[in-house]
Design brief:
heterodimer, A: 420 residues, alpha+beta, D-Maltodextrin-Binding Protein, domain 2, 2 domains, 12 helices, 24% helix, globular, B: 565 residues, Beta-Lactamase, Heat Shock Protein 90, 9-stranded mixed β-sheet, 5-stranded mixed β-sheet, 53% helix, 21% strand
């Protein structure tokens, strides 16, 4: 009788059965780790960010520099490594109810915002509740029903559907646990110092360089993420640096709005053309795209959108600060007949977003993440009613000074500094 | 054409012709000088353009030479171009972009002998396109610089380009380089009225006209964007100098000329009017005075203080009038003397005629008294009528002659009253007397007895003219004001009858003495009337026609401001 009452009590708490927490044994080598020379010789890791950084983009980083910064500044409940394996993040342990709908997560002891106060379960649950209550299709695509804290370190997350394992989207940047810094917005200037935490080193981020990136490497930078082959070529002869090719992280799409004049996609949709694009058209490490593509199976998540009418413009539009997109757009123009009058036009990000919504151009060349932890949510970021053709995939390089602290590569090719 | 009009046109011609000649001369000279200057400007601009094109061509050629020299010794280019070595291919693709920037060119592409683009500076990603026609067409242009329309990723590019070639590893390569031409042409495009415009082959020719000066510079042209395929053509750089400034000057001169003409017209009109008033009015006055002169009115005054030609003419006419007056007096005296002689002869004749019966009767009495004294009384009774008749005749004759020498008295006379008095004493037999007397009549100046005699004669003649006419007739006496105002005012008396009227011959003799158509007339009535009226300084004229009656119109001087009441 007593035993039955205890069992019912435990069931009510949702803590049965007890899943095994996914952790990495200390002596187990990290398959995604990066080690340059003899690690841990540097007390402070200086990171040179080569692209503009907006501190308000913590939940939606727009470039490699923002991804690198926010990945090391804030944490998600969990991490997903370069092989797709779920790793503990802020949550050290997690258990599920019998149907896999209710998940109880236990935060790491001593978890804290960098340079700020501790992170409590209520902070995380509050953030998740806000997301769950947000009346938007993209937020709803996560499938979070509710969240509440059980105590200072434990919280319970209820999903709309059951799952066999902890949902990997908890590692998505949109669910990063931030303090007020992330919501403050504004562009970073100068440097940002992350104080030492546990066995993590001090990390100093140097914000966008107006001067030559090679100058930063020559002076003090210990880590640079770049897609510029010139920079990679430069350090190839420098013994104090080790260059690591990161996973293919960006896929460049040619997006044609609805019914268009001529079949631009069709003309490019050959393996040889795409190989040629990857080989010669862009000045970056690239390759022909390789399926599967995360958006292919989730187009139904998008709201139905009527096909746009015949386009009026002959522009092939790309984001102005994206050299890879520019090279692709220019090659597309070059391959077209001169009499077609196509022209490549670079737009700033806000203008590009407006242009894509209008859909009045001939085509758009845009880079999207190659991986997605929440494809149904991410597909909302793609314009509805467009036809997509993957053109190339590109990857970045990590240039690491020898002796830098150990790092690991996560699911999207972003580097995280890990404990010594 | 009036004197004033002639004067106006004369002044106008005198001023307008020199003015027109001056304006025409200024206009022609200005046009000649400005046109010459504009032509020189256009020629200079044309020379500048041609020199610029030559200089650009030489500059591009020099830069291409430098690049060719570099390429010939560039191992990575050699590896990429000849052997397709992968590591060198990217270098090859980017070579033209870097080289273009270094050499200051805006267009650069390197092609192999088949025309395949190996590297393009202005359109990096246009590699591997086959474009064999461009080097061939530029070579066909004679190795000079040509205008090439090609494309960049963003927009079409207009470049001044030329081609050169080199050999590496036994293979021939072409290099086409050029400088951007759009802004160069744009810089020349406008400079006031001088413009340089680029005309493509498909654009119509600009016709030369009076509104502009044109010069054309031809330049080889290759349009790689043409849908029908590239071909060697030519464009025209047209230097145009608008003559708008010249035309504006012309318009300005014309406008001022018109203003001057208008002012001249106005001035000529005013001058003509003034001169006319100074010249033609005195002439008109002289003409009027001269027209009023006749033998009975020679009292016109031509006195003047003018010392000009008008004054001389006026004095001349005054002298002539004075001589006429003297001659008229002499003539009147001669007439009077002739009239007295005639009268004496007539009186002699008449008296003899009157005395002849008396003498015959007296001879008869003498004969009876000598032969039969007792029958004298009977004979006297028998011949007494003859004597009485002859005496009466003589008395009448005497009365008539007495009337021929009246004494003129000049005093205001009420003509209407005289008319009424005369009509009352007039005996009529079946004749209707009518009057139409003006109540605003002024008094006439003259002798009332003389005026009465005039009226008696005219009314009596009118009544007599109706005698024996079946149904009688009408005699109408009308008075009215005539002439001008003041001293010019006259009193008009019209005596009209409905009698037989007069023929021209009868009218010519009507005023002669002793001419009469009546059986018992003396023929002195109208003669006396005419004399009396002339003595009263009046006038008389007759309106008559056979069968239409006769009207005698008498005009006498009137008293100024006087009314007949």
């Amino acid at each position: 009788m007593r035993c039955g009452a205890v069992t019912l009590f435990l069931l009510a708490l949702g803590c049965a059965p007890q899943p095994t927490p996914s952790t990495l044994a200390p002596d187990q080598p990290d398959p995604c780790g990066l080690t340059a020379g003899s690690p841990n010789q540097l007390d402070t890791l200086t990171v040179a960010l080569l692209e503009p950084v907006d501190l308000g983009n913590a939940t939606a980083p727009a470039n490699d520099s923002e991804r690198l910064l926010f990945r090391n500044l804030f944490e998600n409940l969990i991490r997903v490594d370069c092989e797709g394996t779920v790793r503990p993040g802020l949550a050290r342990y997690w258990t599920a109810d019998s149907v896999g709908r209710g998940w109880t997560l236990t935060l790491r002891e001593g978890a804290a915002f960098p340079g700020s106060g501790p992170i409590s379960a209520s902070d995380v649950a509050g953030m998740l509740r806000v997301l769950a209550n947000r009346d938007s299709a993209s937020a709803g695509a996560f499938g979070i029903d509710s969240a509440f804290e059980l105590d200072d370190r434990r919280l319970r997350v209820l999903m709309r559907g059951g799952a066999d394992s902890l949902p990997r989207f908890l590692a998505d940047p949109a669910l990063v646990v931030t303090d007020g810094l992330a919501s403050g917005g504004g562009s970073g200037e100068g440097s940002l110092l992350i104080p030492r935490q546990g066995k993590l080193p001090v990390i100093e981020f140097r914000f966008p360089l107006q001067r030559d990136a090679r100058d930063a490497l020559d002076r003090e930078a210990d880590l640079v993420i770049t897609r510029d082959p010139v920079l990679v070529d430069y350090v190839s002869n420098r013994a104090e640096f080790t260059t690591f090719p990161l996973p293919w992280s960006r896929t460049y799409l040619l997006m044609e709005p609805g019914v268009s004049r001529g079949d631009l996609l069709g003309a490019l949709d050959t393996v040889s053309v795409r190989k040629s694009l990857a080989k010669d058209a862009v000045r970056a490490s690239s390759r022909a795209p390789e399926p599967p593509y995360w958006w292919s199976d989730h187009r139904s998540c998008q709201a139905a959108s009527p096909l746009r009418s015949d386009n009026a413009s002959s522009r092939v539009v790309y984001r102005k600060d994206d050299d890879i997109a520019r090279g692709l757009a220019e090659r597309i123009v070059a391959l077209a007949s001169p009499s077609a009058g196509l022209r490549a036009v670079g737009l700033e990000a806000p203008e590009l977003a407006i242009a894509v919504r209008g859909g009045s151009d001939r085509a758009y060349v845009m880079g999207v993440p190659r991986q997605s932890l929440a494809p149904c949510r991410d597909v909302y970021g793609l314009p509805a009613g467009f036809r997509f053709l993957p053109l190339i995939e590109s990857r970045a390089y990590a240039i690491v000074r020898n002796g830098a602290p150990p790092m690991t590569v996560e699911w999207d090719g972003t580097i995280r500094v890990v404990e010594r | 054409m009036s004197f004033r009009t002639r004067l106006f046109f004369g002044i106008l011609a005198g001023v307008f012709l020199p003015l027109g000649a001056l304006a025409y001369g200024v206009r022609q000279e200005m046009e000649r000088r400005l046109t010459a200057e504009y032509e020189q400007r256009v020629n200079s601009m044309t020379e500048v353009i041609e020199t610029d094109l030559l200089r650009e061509g030489a500059t591009v050629a020099s830069r291409l030479n430098g690049l060719i020299s570099d390429l010939s010794s560039d191992n990575r280019f050699r590896l990429g171009a000849l052997q397709g070595e992968p590591a060198s291919r990217r270098y090859l693709l980017d070579y033209a972009g870097s080289a273009m920037k270094l050499s200051g060119l805006s267009m650069l592409q390197i092609q192999d002998s088949a025309g395949r683009i190996l590297s393009s500076g202005h359109f990096r990603n246009e590699f591997d396109r086959s474009q064999p026609q461009l080097p061939a067409l530029l070579a066909k242009a004679g190795g000079t610089i040509a205008l090439v329309r090609t494309r960049t990723p963003e927009a079409p590019l207009l470049a001044l380009a030329r081609v050169d070639s080199f050999r590496v590893g036994g293979r021939r390569f072409s290099v086409v380089g050029g400088v951007e031409a759009g802004t160069r042409v744009g810089r020349l495009a406008r400079n006031g009225d001088l413009s340089v415009d680029l005309f493509y082959p498909d654009q119509p020719r600009v016709p030369s006209s009076h509104a502009r000066i044109l010069r054309e510079v031809y330049l080889p042209y290759v349009n790689l964007l043409s849908g029908s395929g590239a071909a060697l053509d030519s464009v025209r750089l047209v230097v145009t100098q608008s003559l708008g400034t010249l035309q504006a000057l012309r318009r300005s001169i014309d406008r001022w000329l018109l203003i001057a003409v208008a002012l001249t017209l106005a001035a000529a009109l005013a001058l003509a009017a003034w001169l006319s008033s100074q010249v033609s009015r005195p002439l008109r006055d002289l003409a009027r005075k001269t027209s009023e002169i006749d033998l009975d009115r020679l009292d016109q005054s031509f006195e003047t203080e003018r010392q000009d030609e008008i004054g001389a003419l006026s004095r001349l006419l005054g002298g002539m009038t004075e001589r006429l007056r003297t001659s008229s007096a002499r003539l009147r005296e001669a007439e009077r003397r002739a009239a007295v002689g005639d009268l004496a002869r007539q009186v002699n004749h008449d008296v003899k005629n009157g005395l002849a019966p008396i003498r015959n009767v007296l001879r008869h009495f003498s004969q009876v008294a000598r032969q039969e004294p007792g029958g004298l009384a009977a004979v006297f009774e028998e011949r007494k009528g003859t004597l009485e008749s002859s005496v009466e005749y003589l008395e009448t004759l005497a009365r008539n002659y007495a009337r021929l020498s009246p004494t003129v008295e000049r005093a205001p006379c009420n003509v209407n009253a005289l008319v009424e008095q005369v009509l009352r004493n007039t005996s009529v037999d079946g004749t209707v007397l009518q009057t139409n007397l003006s109540q605003a009549m002024p008094h006439a100046i003259g002798d009332s007895l003389m005026i009465r005699r005039v009226l008696e004669n005219l009314v009596g003649n009118a009544v007599d003219s109706l005698a024996g006419r079946p149904g009688g007739g009408t005699v109408a006496v009308t008075t009215a004001i005539a002439g001008g105002v003041g001293a010019e005012q006259k009193v008009r008396i019209t005596v009209a009858d409905t009698g037989p009227g007069m023929s021209r011959k009868q009218l010519d003799q009507a005023f002669d003495d002793f001419y009469t158509t009546k059986a018992e007339g003396t023929g002195l009535g109208l003669s006396i009337v005419r004399r009396l009226i002339l003595d009263l300084n009046g006038s008389l004229h007759v309106e008559t026609e056979p069968g239409a009656g006769t009207s005698f119109v008498v005009e006498l001087p009137a008293v100024s401001g006087g009314r007949a009441g």
